Each structure stands twice: as structure tokens, then as C-alpha cells.
Prior knowledge:
mainly alpha; two-stranded antiparallel ribbon; flat
Amino acid sequence: MLRGLTNYPDVSSDWSIAIKELTTVAFTLPFIVIQSLRGRYRFPCLKAIFLLILSGVVCQALGARYHLFAYAALGLALTTPLLQAVQMIMTSLVGAVWLKERVTKVKIATLALLIFAVWLLSGGSSTLEATIAGKELRLGFGLFCVVLASLGYTWELSILRRLLRVAKTTRQEEEAAGIKNEFLPTSLGMIAVTGVGAIICGAALAMQNGLTGLDAILSGMKVVAEDGSVTWTAPPTTCWILVLIAGVANMTGFYFQIEGLRRLFVLKQTMLANAQAIALTLTGFVFYHETCTWTIGLGVVLVAVGVAVAGLDRDKPDGK
């Protein structure tokens, strides 16, 4: 859905991210309020809340924003595998060093297979001849955006993983130990990260168009007149539909991502997430008429094999 917005180059990427994240907030916030009023919801300690907000900042300021810039510069079929490859390398390093997660021989072999697969998905070359909405590929800028987006997503996942592996405690256990609950509810993780994104991108959009309040959010399309004057207006209906669908899909995917991180090492979760590369690459071919080669076809097969092997590999408890 977000890739489709690159066909509307005058629509601000900050607008699309802000509306997408506000959609998730709108669906999740009522649940948290109802659970809180019923006394079934307890917030974690201040340290955990700080780390949660930090994960939202790196995810949105680096990951989401530069992810869209990469789409516009390189296209869906090229950005997706490159982003996956760089992110897998980064999560393997951060997971091993910061989270003390075990990197087994099977994980190393699977990592190498998946990196080779996503290289094939990129066409086996860094000089693909393709156009995005009539514009030539901007390889240098696109690669820069891929690295920053991967960095943001890696640290978001790593911080969330660190929070999610804290065991849930009962009120009695907290009173006996003299500590506050640090368990992170899935709904709180969703609304915190997406809420931070709505605030960051909403503020950036307001700075761009010089508007405030609701007008800043509704006016996400930049219009340049013949005399050079700039005005901001509401994007067309198609853009709204794309962003709202992306918001619902984002909410669903984010829920399962957090639940996955609660049970899996961050590197393994990233490996399994490579399954989306297959769907996204095929989407790029079917809907956006991006280049299809035999190397990409082989890459799709190897991604499927790598994801299957990663799923079969058994994780062991931390430190064992």
C-alpha cells in the first residue's frame, strides 16, 4: 500500500506515516482504556516505558521514514531484499552483543543462505535498469536510506525483545520483592511505537506545510503553482484508501511481530520475517510492473528454504 503512494510524488511521506500510525492508535487505544477502567491493565515501570518510547523513536524517525524514501528511490522489488539483508546482519550483531543471544552454526548457515537469496532478489546486481513512476533509480541515496531504515528497525526490535523477555509478575510477587511490574503488554507496545510515529511525523509535516492542528494532518499534498508559490491540500481519495488499508495491515502485523518477539530470539524473528520478501516482490511485479529476472525467481525459492530452516532450528533459553 505504501509503495503505491510513490506514484503520488507530491504526497508527503510524513503524512502517510502519521495517518497509518494514527489508524493503529485509533483501534488500540479504546481497548487499553477499557481494560484500565476494569482494573485489568497495569503499566510497566518508568525505565521500561522509557525504553519503549525509545524503540518508537528509532523505529519511526529512522526505520519508517527512510523505508519510504528507499521505496521512492529504488522501488519495492529492490528495496525489500536489500533491507532484509542489511537488517539480518545488524540484528545478528546486536542480538549477540547486546542481548547475549546464541548464534549457532545453523543460524550462521541460514543467515548466509538468506543473504545470498535476497541478493538474488535484488537481481544479482547493483546496477538494475528500471524506473519508478518514470524516474531513474537513485542507487546511492536509496542505499543510504536502506542502511538507516535497517538500523532503526534493528534497534526497535532489539529493545522490544529485551522488554518482552521480562517475566510477568503478580501483584503479590511485586509486593514481596518490592518492585514494580516490568511486563510489557502487547497492546501497550503497539500504541507506544505507533503513537510516537504519529507525533514525530505529524510534527515534521506541520513544519513542512506551516499549518497547525487538524489542518496539518489533513493537508498532506504539496502543490507548486506556475509562479512558484507553494500550497498544501488534502491528498486524493486513492491515497487515503491506501494509507488506511496500510494502517489496518500495520496493526495486524505489529501485533504478531510483538507476540513473535516474546517467544523468539530477535535474529530468528528477523529471519522468519523474510517470508514477506516473497509476497512483496511478487506484488512489485504484478501491481507496479517492476523488472522480473531468473535470479529473482531463484531468490524467492531460496528465501522460502531459508525461512523453513530458520523455523526448524530450536532456540534455547538465554545463557544456555
